[in-house]
Specification:
388 residues, alpha+beta, Cytochrome p450, five-stranded mixed sheet, three-stranded antiparallel sheet, 17 helices, 50% helix, globular, binds protoporphyrin IX containing FE
Length: 388
């Protein structure tokens, strides 16, 4: 999908999406063989109709395919998907996640303590990046000393599209990370703790334990899904709030508006812009015949700007009300971490609003998007405020 890539990777891919919704809403890229879907109704169908649009990518053995997620629930279809999901559901229910709020607040405060008096900082490096990494690492029982290696691995992995070829960097990262998790799994097997990996090790489906490939799939999926996406939700939120005059002041005065403002960020600058499927049968999509067995990209970032569903789609409007955006997907694969991501975002942004008064984007700084067509977020977010 080379000809799409440059526009799809830019900080403003939205005019490109709009053109595609108008002219080629279901587009066959003959060069790569992939199909691309841009309108809300079609994206919704692709994400949720799992019998026609399968999530299975590659084989079952990660060492064979080089795909870390090959054996994880995000790439499983029913009935395996339901079984795998039931193992981790408990850890991510809104109730279980709410119990993490005090710890998330404490971590946020510690991170902001490090920058609040300076008056200027990169908010990605200072808060949005470390917070989700530490939260997910603690849930998984990963030692604090290994956190930085974690972030590096997840950065490399998100830049690799699931259908694209692996380069040497990706391969080295996959090998290193797989080795790390294999060691950690063995440690937990002999000395279980009160963490997610230990509980996955003891879990059984119909009397059968998870395979090592499945355990690895879970570890790498949670690591990547739990980090970069939430980092970008927090970063994209600050960008959206700072861009629209009056928004920061209003949210500071009325913090109860924050959850709905975060939903609008999820719609307007969706941290996950695209998801993959493979057609399991011949089908008709948006009036176009799509054959079985072809890869398909559902453009969530475009669906969330579809004028057929959202009036004034290119306006960031925190008063929009419930909008049924697709930022967390839809159907059986609906994001497992949505309650956690929303909670982390509320806590982090509340703290930013109250502890960094007069927050603005630092004048003259050049904003750049991370190198990915899947994930949408900034490499750096330079901001300034009135340090007390
Ligand atoms: C703003 C932050 C996040 C966004 C935008 C996001 C987005 C998504 C999307 C679009 C999907 C659907 C994938 C598909 O249909 O194929 C998904 C699935 C998933 N997400 Fe998230 N995610 C976020 C945060 C998290 C967090 C914090 C975690 C875990 C700690 C997480 C774990 C997962 C998992 C495990 C799945 C697969 C669920 C399944 O296949 O049943 N996500 N996410």
């Amino acid at each position: 999908m080379d000809f799409l890539s440059d526009r799809a990777r830019s900080l403003d891919p939205f005019p490109h999406y709009r053109r595609m919704r108008e002219t080629s809403p279901v587009f066959h890229d003959e060069q790569s063989g992939s199909w691309h879907v841009f309108r809300y109704d079609d994206v919704q169908r692709v994400l949720s109709e799992h019998a026609t649009f399968s999530s299975r990518m590659g084989g079952d053995d990660p060492s064979e395919t080089g795909q870390l997620f090959a054996a994880s629930l995000i790439t499983a279809d029913p009935p395996r998907h339901r079984q795998l999901r039931s193992l981790v559901n408990q850890a991510f229910t809104p109730k279980a996640v709410d119990a993490l709020a005090p710890r998330i607040s404490q971590l946020t405060d510690e991170l902001l303590d490090g920058i609040a008096s300076t008056g200027t900082a990169d908010l990605i490096a200072g808060l949005a990046y470390p917070l989700p990494v530490i939260v997910i690492a603690e849930l998984m029982g990963i030692p604090p000393a290994d956190r930085d290696r974690f972030k590096q691995w997840s950065d490399v992995i998100v830049s690799q599209t699931r259908t694209g070829a692996e380069n040497a960097d990706h391969h080295a990262t996959n090998v290193e990370m797989t080795g790390y998790f294999l060691d950690l799994i063995e440690q937990r097997r002999s000395r279980p703790g009160n963490d997610l990996i230990s509980s996955l090790l003891s879990a059984e489906i119909d009397g059968q334990k998870l395979s090592v490939a499945e355990l690895l799939g879970f570890c790498s999926l949670l690591l990547v899904a739990g980090n970069e996406t939430t980092t970008n939700l927090i970063g994209n939120a600050v960008l959206c709030f700072a861009e629209v005059p009056g928004t920061i002041e209003r949210l500071r005065a009325e913090q109860s508006l924050l959850p709905q403002a975060i939903e609008e960020v999820l719609r307007y600058r969706s941290p996950v812009q695209s998801m993959y499927r493979v057609t399991a049968a011949d089908t008709t999509l948006g009036g176009v015949q799509v054959p079985a067995g072809v890869p398909l990209v559902a453009w969530i970032g475009s669906a969330n700007r579809d004028e057929r569903h959202f009036p004034r789609p290119d306006q960031f409007d925190i008063d929009r009300g419930p909008s049924r955006h697709l930022a967390f997907g839809q159907g059986i694969h609906f994001c497992l971490g949505a309650p956690l991501a929303r909670l982390e975002a509320v806590i982090a942004l509340q703290a930013v609003l109250s502890r960094l008064p007069g927050l603005t984007l630092t004048a003259g700084s050049q904003l750049e998007r991370m190198d990915s067509t899947i994930v949408y977020g900034l490499t750096e977010l330079p901001v300034s405020w009135q340090a007390g």
